[in-house]
Structure formats: structure tokens, C-alpha cells
Design goal:
mainly alpha, 2 domains, two-stranded parallel ribbon, globular
């Protein structure tokens, strides 16, 4: 019988086998830049000064960071689909690639189909934040590369790009920017975090799809928290109902009530970045439509498909 640990391991393995959807959707020019950054990071991860010297040779590296920051800020207003990400990436490369300005950003966002009001808010917030970082650190890549503690990095991202605001939509943007730069398989600019135990302190946003897979797979079952026990009790009640051959109701759970549990499960998986990536992908492509037989974690999943979230 597969265990909760088996489920977590399989989800992490799936996360390792695929690309983050943000990286996957990057236009060719920015994608090539990611490969350059990875190569430099892996080669000089133990020598910050040499790492920075080599990063300085990557042409327009700050534009890559600007694009990721644009997505992070935009996420406060709108969660982009894969197709929207591809459209925006192509428009950014076409209009903004070498020079960042309000007019060029506006053209890119307009071409990608972003509403005018959202585009204006995003551009204003982004340019203000970029100005703050440039004034203090001279270059965006220097600001990120010198980060040593995940908590401080997250606090800085929230303060600079979101004026210290809280809430789930802001959190979604903060986590997007963080995960992009703290993991070897993404854009590992924050080498002091990506190549130490610091990245394991990352806590996912806890979106609908990651949460759905965490619960339906049983990846939470060995957690002893009050929230986990409540979910397990409701699952047991439903299974008992099925065993009796009765007509049973779905187990409906509020996302907000189990977001902390999902984050904890990701943390104990050993690699929360890969766990989030794997669970999200499974959720979007398989779990939401109950494509269990094609699912990459089908051999270890408990298939609690009667669990729904609201």
C-alpha cells in the first residue's frame, strides 16, 4: 500500500521531470539567457565574486529579471494561462527586449491582451520598483545574486514590488518571483539560497491545483496537525459510506482552511519548489478532469477523487 511519503516522492520526481511553466513559456532570447545563467551558477556557485564577474558578461540579463518581475506584479491582478504566458513572452521580446520603458511595456501588454487598467497599474508598480532597486544596487542581478536568506529575500520582494501588502493575490506574485531565482532548475541567480539548505525553506503559495493533488493523493496522511486530522476524519467517513453502499456526498473543503497544511506537506517533501511544480502540473493536466489512468502519480495516489475545494 503506497504511503504519504511515496506520494510526496512521486510528486517531487514529476516536478523534476518537467520545466516550471514560467521557464517553459519564455521566448527564445530569454530562454537562452536562462541556460547561460544556469551554466555560470553551477560553475561558480562557491565563488560569489567570480560568479558576479561572469554574470556581467550576459547581455541584457536585467531584462530577463524585468520580465519575471513583470509577471510577478501582473499576478496580483491576473493569473495567466500557459497560452497567455507565451503571448506575453513573445510580445515582451518583440517590444521591450533591449530597452525597458513605459511605452514599450504598454505595447507588449496590449499585444498580449492585458486590460488597459491592469496594464497601467502593473507598469507603474514595476517601474517604481525597478527604480528603487537600481538606485540602491545599480543592477537587478546584483540585488538578487547577493541574497543570502530566503526570509529576507521574500520580505524585500514584498516591500519593493508590492509596497508591503499582504493577501493571497500579492502572495501569488511574491512566490512566483521567489521560486524563479532560488532553485537550480529555474534561474538560479540567488546562489547563496539555491545551493544551500535555504531554498528548502520556501513555502508555496498553496494554489487550488497544488492543494487538490496534495489531498486527493493522500500526501498529507502522515501529518499529525489538527487540520490534517480533520481532513482524515472526513475522508474516513466518506470511505465508510462507500463501503456501506450508500449514496455519499463529496467532501468539500475550503482552500483557505488547508493552505497551511499544503505548505507543510510541500516542506516535508524535501524540495518544496519541485513539489509545488509537480503537484500543480498534475492538478492542471490530470486531477481536475479525473484523468487518473494517464496521471504520472497514479501508482501511489490514494485517488480520493471525492474531495473538492472551494
Amino acid at each position: 500500500m503506497p504511503t504519504a511519503e511515496d506520494a510526496r516522492r512521486k510528486i517531487v520526481e514529476h516536478g523534476m521531470a518537467i520545466h516550471d511553466r514560467i521557464v517553459e513559456s519564455l521566448p527564445p532570447g530569454l530562454g537562452l539567457m536562462v541556460e547561460q545563467v544556469r551554466s555560470i551558477s553551477r560553475t561558480y556557485k562557491g565563488d560569489l565574486d567570480t560568479f558576479l564577474t561572469n554574470l556581467a558578461t550576459v547581455k541584457n540579463i536585467d531584462n530577463l529579471i524585468t520580465y519575471i518581475a513583470l509577471l510577478a506584479v501582473l499576478n496580483k491582478y491576473k493569473s495567466l494561462s500557459d497560452e497567455e504566458l507565451r503571448r506575453l513572452g513573445a510580445a515582451f521580446e518583440r517590444h521591450v527586449y533591449d530597452v525597458v520603458s513605459a511605452s514599450r511595456l504598454r505595447k507588449a501588454l496590449e499585444e498580449a491582451g492585458i486590460e488597459k487598467e491592469v496594464a497601467n497599474e502593473t507598469i507603474s508598480t514595476l517601474l517604481r520598483a525597478l527604480g528603487v532597486i537600481h538606485h540602491k544596487h545599480k543592477a537587478l542581478y546584483l540585488w538578487i545574486a547577493k541574497q543570502r536568506r530566503l526570509a529576507n529575500f521574500e520580505r524585500g520582494v514584498r516591500e519593493v514590488f508590492f509596497r508591503g501588502e499582504g493577501g493571497n493575490k500579492v502572495g501569488r506574485g511574491v512566490k512566483l518571483l521567489l521560486r524563479m531565482f532560488i532553485h537550480d532548475t529555474n534561474i538560479p541567480l540567488a546562489i547563496k539560497i539555491a545551493y544551500s539548505q535555504e531554498y528548502k525553506k520556501y513555502l508555496p503559495h498553496g494554489d487550488m491545483y497544488t492543494a487538490l493533488v496534495t489531498l486527493r493523493s493522500g500526501a498529507f496522511e502522515d501529518v499529525a496537525s489538527l487540520t490534517a486530522e480533520r481532513v482524515k476524519a472526513r475522508v474516513a467517513k466518506r470511505l465508510l459510506c462507500e463501503a456501506r453502499g450508500e449514496k455519499c456526498k463529496d467532501v468539500v473543503i475550503r482552500l483557505e482552511s488547508i493552505r497551511g497544511l499544503v505548505r507543510h506537506v510541500a516542506k516535508i517533501s524535501g524540495d518544496p519548489v519541485l513539489y509545488e511544480r509537480g503537484a500543480y502540473d498534475v492538478g492542471v493536466k490530470y486531477c481536475k478532469d479525473l484523468k487518473c489512468e494517464a496521471c504520472p502519480i497514479r501508482d501511489v495516489c490514494k485517488r480520493f477523487t471525492f474531495i473538492t475545494l472551494r
